């Protein structure tokens, strides 16, 4: 819960460091994580969007049925802003096609797929206007997901620092099409090199819906579609306890398998 307001923190990532397992809290801030088995004790790492990271030591064989964790809000230091005159136009970054590739991108609660919307033409960027995800028609298209924006300042230019520090949880009306999220109220300034746009799977109510529509495949919640427009891998996948990993799949023509995501950003002339 929030240390100051005592309000529950929904969709918080809770992971055991050594076990490399974890969970995502539900909309009421509740979670269940198995006790450590590898070592006598382990560190429970709590990561709530917009809050300071917190750790709690837990021991093997010692159940904590009523553990309450209070997390302090993270102070955000604003940079000095210089106002200059100039024209602002819209610049589209990321996927250009309206035809998704074969395949499906799925996740479980707390997992993410982040696509780097690269500023290929080295334009001067301003605020992020919208981000869009191509939602697949399979699975549960109307299940909610959380929008995440990151700087590419992690190891090997992976996603790391949150650009969007507010909880933006949305739901698409249907699948088989682009779904666009308006981010203008949040005044997120895009780094000039580009930034990561990510979908994070979250828990809806008390259940995380699954369905079997193929004999050997079970989708969880929301499903995204891939694109094969790019010759470079721009998509990273995240799982609780294991962190970020670069996707390197490619088709027969050498085009890389990437999440079908795009963004509209202010371009300053």
Q: Main attributes?
A:
269 residues; mainly beta; 6-stranded antiparallel β-sheet; 4-stranded antiparallel β-sheet; globular
Question: What would you note in describing this structure?
Answer:
- The protein has 269 residues and is mainly beta.
- The protein has strands spanning 13-16, 21-24, 41-47, 54-59, 88-94, 105-106, 112-118, 125-135, 145-150, 169-170, 177-182, 194-201, 223-224, 226-227, 235-239, 243-246, 258-259, 261-268.
- It has a six-stranded antiparallel β-sheet with strand order 10-9-12-7-15-16, with no helix packed on it. Strands 2-1-3-4 form a four-stranded antiparallel β-sheet, with no helix packed on it. Strands 5-18-8-11 form a four-stranded antiparallel β-sheet, with no helix packed on it.
- Strand 1 (13-16) and strand 2 form a beta hairpin.
- It starts with 12 loop residues before the first strand and ends with a strand.
- The mean pLDDT is 88.
Instruction: Tell me the span between the first and last alpha carbons.
Output: 44 Å
| Number of helical segments with 4 or more residues | 0
Based on Cα principal axes, name the global outline: globular
Major sheet attributes = 6 strands, antiparallel
Order of helices and strands: EEEEEEEEEEEEEEEEEE
Mean pLDDT comes to: 88
The secondary-structure class comes to mainly beta
**Strands side by side in the biggest sheet:** 10-9-12-7-15-16
Q: Give a count of the beta strands, DSSP E runs of length 2 or more.
A: 18
- Low-confidence spans: none
Percent helix among the residues?
Answer: under 10%
Radius of gyration of CA atoms, rounded to a whole number: 19 Å
**Approximately what portion of the residues adopt beta-strand conformation?**
25-35%
